[in-house]
Amino acid sequence: MTFQAFLIKYAEIGIKGKNRYLFENALVRQIEYGIAQVEGSFCVTKASGRIYVNCLSEYDEEELVEALKRVFGIVWICPVMQIPDEGFDDLRRKVVAYMKEMYADQDITFKVEARRSRKNYPLNSQEINVEMGEAVLQALSGARVDVHKPQVVLRIEVREQFVNVYSVQIPGPGGMPIGTNGRATLLLSGGIDSPVAGYLIAKRGVIVDAVYFHAPPYTSERAKQKVIDLARLVSRYSGPVQLHIVNFTEIQLYIYEQCPHEQLTILMRRYMMRIAEKIARKNGSMALITGESIGQVASQTVQSLCATNEVCTMPVFRPVIGFDKQEIVDVAEKIGTYETSVLPYEDCCTIFVAKHPVTKPNVHIIRKSEERLAEKIDGLVEEAMRSIETVVCRPVG
Ligand code: ATP
Ligand code: MG
Predict the structure, then answer these.
(1) Atom of ligand 1 minimally distant from the CA of 192
(2) Would the CB of 189 count as within 6 Å of ligand 1?
(3) How big is the CA angle at 310 (ends 307 and 313), to the nearest 5 degrees?
(4) CA nearest neighbour of 73 among 202, 170, 228, 236
(5) What does the pLDDT look like over 91-149, one tens digit per residue?
């Protein structure tokens, strides 16, 4: 069956009141962006509290639904038949034909759920339920009514211009449309956790920029390309990601030269946060995002997180802070970043890592160590800021 429209349902919570249209307009924009690459001609419309994707040409349903499943803010995707109102007999005939095509020769339990936004329709909702229920029972030998836990809910919505008929609801990703919740900057490494963190914050409607610290020649072009690829994968959900690539080599070497090696990771992480914050501020971001999770590694104990956090003045969002590794992996697999994340390229954090890093850094000692960097560090940070390379990452293919 080919559907001429898809009804898009979104969450009601938090969007009532006078800001509702902002949310809806953002969702329309994001749907348009999300389906731009899908072959065919579509028109996204807003009609009395409903959003529709109208299909104006031939299209591939699977491809369209896959694209819609990546648009944050969508809760359900419903392929609908839109039937012009030509009387109830006509509607009954068309609904029966629909049910036969969808569920012929199947044993199903069902119920009819009618709603009218047009109150002058000759039948009320309950009458439609009864009439349609009987018609379907007569036409489909395998059908039984179950009003409590039906396998199929046949929805009939009488609107002003037409009647919507549908019985399939495909889950969307949920969340809020991108652009409804400001901008934040993700510290994106080549690992499993940070792309997931970026996805989770984008899911709440936040535009995500990214920063990657590389250390050539200690980290390779391939490692950098991997991070660009990850940003592209995240951009399938979040929209274009501005990725700022920072050359961190001189700063790392200087810390290595001047400071106790067991503190290297913490000191590096503090400079990463400082630089990320400078970049964020410059680009209108209001927060940072990391893929940290309590206790995962030495630099993510609560003491280490405190020592890292101390240098930030912006809020730092750590959406996977309470996730176990496997839970993060599950999300990475679901969103399609896992396979790229596990490619075995070097990371700047692992190259300079000490054998026995501190797990409970004392911030006073860490600050003391940083005093040893006083002579050159400001200049090196400025130089790193000057040499930033920015790549706009969009979905491939
Ligand atoms: P991930 O899987 O995201 O790489 P991880 O378990 O390897 O995380 P760490 O290396 O301790 O953890 O990094 C913690 C967080 O710091 C990362 O999630 C990321 O947000 C940020 N980060 C680490 N290395 C880099 C880097 N080279 N460039 C940008 N951000 C980084
Ligand atoms: Mg990492």
Answers:
(1) 2
(2) yes
(3) 155
(4) 202
(5) 999 999 999 999 988 899 999 999 998 888 999 999 999 999 999 999 999 999 999 99
